[in-house]
From TrEMBL:
The protein's Enzyme Commission number: 4.2.3.1
Signal peptide stretch: none
Ranges where the Threonine synthase N-terminal domain occurs: 2-80
Organism: Pontivivens nitratireducens
NCBIfam families for this protein: thrC
Protein name: Threonine synthase
Top-level taxonomy: Bacteria, Pseudomonadati, Pseudomonadota, Alphaproteobacteria, Rhodobacterales
């Protein structure tokens, strides 16, 4: 499988190169040159298989010869061995035709673990083989950072620097990043919001001299391997509800558009998905785009679902690439417009295609709190605010197909909001019970590229 940049000007790479490279050298994102197909029989054959075997079958065509079959199977086994549920990503029924896909059974209690645990194993195998060392720099609104630190802490071939927006992540999220003791992990509290952090990471990748000097690698959903690993659970969920014989819809709490793009990938591969529903909080740029065709940035308003406080939705670029017939120059132009003017308008053709694949909805702060309460009272499930954005939007978007909402984080990561909503303060699992007592280690930095690059090179 070859990987091409959404902006059309970077060299084509194989899977291993795309995984270790992160952002393309033309500023674009890598995508597979074509979508591998799974037939109805291939999909039907996934029924009843362990999560790890489904993961192998779905991802193998993308990974090609990077890992032998035996090696790849071992990598997948190791990645999910630490999950606290045998199904890895179990489904729970919450209504006659409504389901939650629980993605928070990994070590840091959010869906990011599903991909990050796998990437950690893939990086380790690949870097050991080549003897290389890399510097991972990531941006987080809370969950990617803790998952990355957990996956890479203590590994000899990587240093990990995570930029998070100072004061804008939950205490649990912050402590998950600032309390690990391994000296290859570095939590950086940056003045600004998540968009500032993500822009800084992309600027670092676009500073080619710095990038080459420190051997920069990325584990945000910039990295194709992240998105790929997330496509797997769309298959396990849909097959458990009767796919390929029956179509299934998904509602995805959305910020950086990585998770829902993984659903789109599954659909492109042949999974019979009916609707893909984008659920946003009050930072609703994607919902507004679907409604009007204008993709317009507004300031980020901090919310009780902080991981989705995003206006520059990185992976939307990957979708645009398909919506514009994979014309890299058109995407480069749209991205320039977004950077310069804070907005662009979709062509009518692109908007029609977008609406043909996706629906969208938003939940205000009040609606999110009310939804947590409603779910607790009517289903007995105490859900996190991100998931609540999803279930609220899912209810409004429901058609006749079964509706699966992605439960992207454990409620205990956001105890204040959950308690405010429903009066129940969710507990962390016993293995994390002393999180609030552990000493923290972080560096506060301004949101300036030069200061960050200096800090990183000085630390290495
Ligand atoms: C808990 C949670 N839910 C939803 C999202 C949104 O996912 P995505 O950025 O892939 O759209 C995030 C952050 O990415 C998150 O951490
Ligand atoms: N919500 C995310 C934002 C970064 O998303 P990513 O999928 O691009 O890594 C977070 O929790 O950090």
């Amino acid at each position: 499988m070859r990987y091409i940049s959404t902006r059309g000007q970077a060299p084509e790479l194989n899977f291993e190169e795309a995984m270790l490279t992160g952002l393309a050298r033309d500023g674009g994102l890598y995508v597979p040159a074509e979508w591998p197909q799974m037939s109805a029989d291939d999909i039907a054959a996934l029924a009843g298989l362990p999560y790890e075997e489904v993961a192998f079958r779905v991802m193998k065509p993308f990974v090609d010869e990077t890992f032998s079959d035996a090696e790849f199977r071992e990598i997948i086994q190791r990645a999910y061995a630490g999950f606290d549920h045998a199904a890895r990503c179990p489904m729970v029924q919450t209504g006659p035709n409504d389901w939650l896909l629980e993605l928070h059974h990994g070590p840091t209690l959010a869906f990011k673990d599903v991909a990050m645990q796998l990437i950690g194993q893939m990086f380790e195998t690949s870097l050991k083989r080549s003897g290389q060392r890399v510097t991972i720099v990531g941006a987080t609104s809370g969950d990617t950072g803790s998952a990355a630190i957990e996956a890479f802490r203590g590994l000899s071939s990587v240093d990990v620097f995570i930029l998070y927006p100072h004061g804008r992540v939950s205490e649990v999220q912050r402590r998950q990043m600032t309390t690990p003791v391994e000296d290859n992990v570095h939590a950086l509290a940056v003045d600004g919001d998540f968009d500032t952090c993500q822009a800084l990471v992309k600027d670092m990748f676009n500073d080619l001299e710095f990038r080459d000097r420190v051997r920069l690698a990325g584990v945000n959903s910039i990295n194709w391997a992240r998105v790929l690993a997330q496509a797997v659970y769309f298959f396990t969920a849909a097959v458990s509800l009767g796919a390929p014989a029956r179509k299934v819809s998904f509602t995805v709490p959305t910020g950086n558009f990585g998770d829902i793009f993984a659903g789109y990938v599954a659909k492109r591969m042949g999974l019979p998905i009916d609707r893909l529903v984008i659920a946003t909080n009050q930072n609703d740029i994607l919902h507004r785009t679907l409604q009007s065709g204008a993709h317009e940035k507004e300031g980020v308003a901090p919310s009780i679902s902080p991981s989705m406080d995003i206006q520059v939705s990185s992976n939307f670029e990957r979708l645009l690439f398909d919506l514009y017939d994979r014309e890299g120059s058109a995407i480069a132009q749209l991205m320039d417009e977004l950077k310069e003017n804070g907005q662009f308008t979709l062509s009518q053709g692109a908007l029609d295609r977008l609406r043909a694949e996706f629906d969208s909805g938003r939940a205000s702060e009040e609606e999110t709190l009310a939804e947590i309460r409603l779910m607790a009272e009517t289903t007995g499930h105490v859900i996190c605010p991100h998931c609540a954005v999803g279930t609220k939007v899912a209810r409004e978007a429901h058609g006749s197909a079964p509706m699966v909402t992605l439960a992207t984080a454990h409620a205990a990561k956001f105890p204040d909001a959950v308690e405010q909503a429903c009066g129940i303060r969710p507990d962390l699992p016993p293995r994390m019970a002393d999180l609030y007592e552990r000493p923290e280690r972080l560096t506060r930095l301004p949101g300036e590229l030069s200061a960050l690059e200096k800090h990183i090179e000085g630390t290495l």
